[in-house]
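Reopening closed ticket. The problem is back. First fold of the pair:
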Amino acid sequence: MSDRTGSTASYRQRESGYRDKALKMYPWVCGRCAREFTYSNLSQLTVHHIDHNHDNNPGDGSNWELLCLYCHDHEHSKYSIYNGENGSAVIPGEKSPQVKHNPFANLKSLIDEKK
């Protein structure tokens, strides 16, 4: 699996580094819903990359914001485009599947028939 899915050791190590920095830099509050976190529920607070590039980790934290699990999922869902054919998400910038159905393919002939 790729680093993008968070499944490899190098991804987890990199994530651990910027997460620790972000938690020291920012208050433990979700940047969207303002939910406050403590040590007991800190695992539910995530680091969101504003530009969606997990390799862009400036030392000043300008590409990070802390979001709760729910707001983080919602933020990423806004950037997904769903393909109605198979329900898979397509991430902007990646090649999307070809659309095969054109609902207006025979529109001209239908209009001409009515004339």
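Second fold of the pair, where the issue appears:
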Amino acid sequence: MKYTVETEIDLPLGKVIELFDNPDNLKYWMDGLVNFESISGIPGQAGAKSRLIFRMGNRNIEMTETITARRLPDEFTGTYEANGVYNIVKNRFISVPGNKTRYITENYFEFKGFMKVIAFIMPGSFKRQSLKYLQDFKRFAEDDIRNLNVIQLNGTH
């Protein structure tokens, strides 16, 4: 299964990359993320491996992330392996007029066993989840700037 999703963020490219490139921010926009821990390599760099645990419904899903390419803003690609699922996600960020950023993900999935059945029955659920992560990141990024501006206006820093 292959598809692309995208959103436009009302922030300049540099700020979007700064927010995206900080693994401490994952918990603010990756719904269901319970734990993110480095396994090997330098976190966020090509070759790094991390373990992610998501709570989905009443069960935990563990996956291993391997960063395969890091050339931000042009590309940040990783593989994500979980029980019965192999996923490649290529993230791209493009500066657009009006001091905005287009965030694009190209997604590729391979399924095994029972997950083949799930993917066949509900193929749209994977695309909806990918789009939700983009929209949640957009909301986090734009709200982060609004909150920072409020703090600065109030004289607190």
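Update: turned out to be a display glitch only; the data is intact. The chain has one domain: 2-154. The first strand starts at residue 2 and ends at 9. Please close again.
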